[in-house]
Each structure stands twice: as structure tokens, then as C-alpha cells.
Amino acid sequence: MSDISYIQQQDNEARFGDYIALLKPRVMSLVVFTAFVGLVVAPNPVHPFVGFVAILFIALGGGASGALNMWYDADIDRIMRRTRSRPIPAGKVTEREALGFGLALSGISCVMLALATNIFSGLFLAFTIFFYVVIYTMWLKRATPQNIVIGGAAGAFPPMIGWAVATGGVSIESIAMFLLVFLWTPPHFWSLALFMKSDYHEAKVPMLTVTHGREHTRKNILVYTLILAPLAVGTGFTSIGGPLYLATAIVMNALFIKGAIEIHGRTEVQAEADKYAVEKRFFYFSLVYLFAHFAALLAEEGLSHIGLGVW
């Protein structure tokens, strides 16, 4: 074997980092954070070690979903610019390896979460993986422009799983956290789609921008933002809310609505002229928006532990 062939072979071999990339670490960070908040704000205290183990297995379950998603979407990942560097399109990991990796992590995470905490949370994690991989990835993503709306439920389940770890069930508070992420997802991803339309069009993914156009997408961003706002603020009046959360929610939603109105009022000529600056700003702010809400819930729980909780 020549030196050049050897170097090329070495370059194409999977490294530890390639398997980490299969887990979609950026998405996993959202899963871990919201699940952690759901666990901490629940009324039943959990031993720190049990809590750590639970979050670890929830994270592995989220990573397993990412690996299985990359396995199934390998064909369109090779087409889309923002996904061509992923391990499978880049030739670092084979589709078969990604499938085996994802299935193994799925089984381990669900079984171990059930054994470490309770059966309900283990089954809930299994259902979440199934929903993301089968319902969203294999069906909705390529079948309907409502893919993000319905499929967004998968990303909204983690705080409910965290709550279930502590309580063994579901409550109005965990549903409120679910709805917060669920209703946030469409404006977040549609704003991304506004400046990534060509990717989805070339991959024949029926994103709303592709099937109904950008003007319709802008309108839907505003509609979902207006639906989200009262739910987000209303969570402040549940047992997990409080003045700090309420103030955070009011400010964040006022800014989010302002951004959605700006997007709705723009034409494609204006957007192309500034290279979708407003849409990109809204997309990145949406990340801050979600983090701020869950961080405020966490802060309210901390205040209640030192006797400063209000309701």
C-alpha cells in the first residue's frame, strides 16, 4: 500500500469524535437541559446520584435518536449543504454502523433508565425515541409541511421525562413545559428554513418554505409565536412558576413577538438585500428565548429552597 493510500484510508476511518457527532451533541444539550429542569422542579426530591444517572441515560436516549435519524436521512444529508459534513455523508461511519450504534444506545438507555428510576420513565423515553425516529424521521419529515409542528413533540418530551423520573407520572406542570418547547419549535425551525430554503428544496423535504412559500411561512411564524406567548407567560402561575419566571417570560415573549412581526412584515427583496439578517437574528434569539424560560424555572426552584419562593 502506498503512503498516499494509507493516509486516505486513515482519513476515512471513524474516530471517537465521529461517533459523538452521530449523537447530535447540540440537540442533546437541549434535551439534557430541559430534562434536568423537569427533574429538579418536580415536587418529589431525587437523590443526586439517581438524578445524575437519569440525566445520563436520557442524554444517551437523545443521542440514540440522533444516530438513528442520521442513519435514515443519510441520502438527503448528502445533498444538503449544512449536513454534508456529518459522519455518514463524509464517509467516516457507514450507515450500518450508525444503525447498530443507535439501536444499542436506545436499548441501553431505556432499560437502564427504567431500572435506575421507574418503569414509566423508561417507557416514556422509549416512546420518545420511537416518535422521533419512526413518526417524525421516517414518516412526517418527507410527507407533510407540518413535519416540524407534529414532529416537534419529540423534542418537547424530555422535560416531561425528567418530571416522570421524580414523580413517576405526568402533571399540568410537566405538560406546560412540554407545550413551551412544542409551540416554540415551529417558529424556531421555520426561521431557519427561511434562509436555508435551497437545502430543503434540493433534498425534496416538504418544509413549509418549499410547499407554501416564504410569505406563508412568515405568517405562520407570527401565528405560532402569538399562540406560544400566553402559554409561556401562563406557566408562571403554576406551582413551578413565580415572579422571576413571570418577569422573564413577559420580556422574552415581548421580544419574540416583536421579532416575529418584523419577519412577517418583510418581503423577499428586503430579506435578500440584507442576507436574511432579521431571520437569522430571530433564529438565534429563539435559542436564548427557550434557555431563558427554563433557566428561570430552575432559578425559581432554587429560590424556593432558600425560602424565597412566592407561590
UniProtKB/TrEMBL annotation:
EC numbers for this chain: 2.5.1.141
Record GO biological process: heme O biosynthetic process
InterPro entries in the record: Protohaem_IX_farnesylTrfase (IPR006369), UbiA_prenyltransferase (IPR000537), UbiA_prenylTrfase_CS (IPR030470), UbiA_sf (IPR044878)
TM spans (from-to): 21-43, 49-72, 122-140, 147-166, 172-195, 221-238, 244-261, 282-299
Membrane topology field: Multi-pass membrane protein
Molecular functions per Gene Ontology: protoheme IX farnesyltransferase activity
Keywords: Cell membrane, Heme biosynthesis, Membrane, Transferase, Transmembrane, Transmembrane helix
One Pfam family linked to the record: UbiA
Compartments it resides in: Cell membrane
Gene Ontology CC annotations of this record: plasma membrane
Catalytic reaction list: heme b + (2E,6E)-farnesyl diphosphate + H2O = Fe(II)-heme o + diphosphate
Pathway(s) of this molecule: Porphyrin-containing compound metabolism; heme O biosynthesis; heme O from protoheme: step 1/1
PROSITE patterns named in the record: UBIA
Task performed by this protein: Converts heme B (protoheme IX) to heme O by substitution of the vinyl group on carbon 2 of heme B porphyrin ring with a hydroxyethyl farnesyl side group.
Note: Carbon 2 of the heme B porphyrin ring is defined according to the Fischer nomenclature.
Quaternary context: Interacts with CtaA.
Family: Belongs to the UbiA prenyltransferase family. Protoheme IX farnesyltransferase subfamily.
The protein, known as: Protoheme IX farnesyltransferase
Natural source organism: Thioclava pacifica DSM 10166
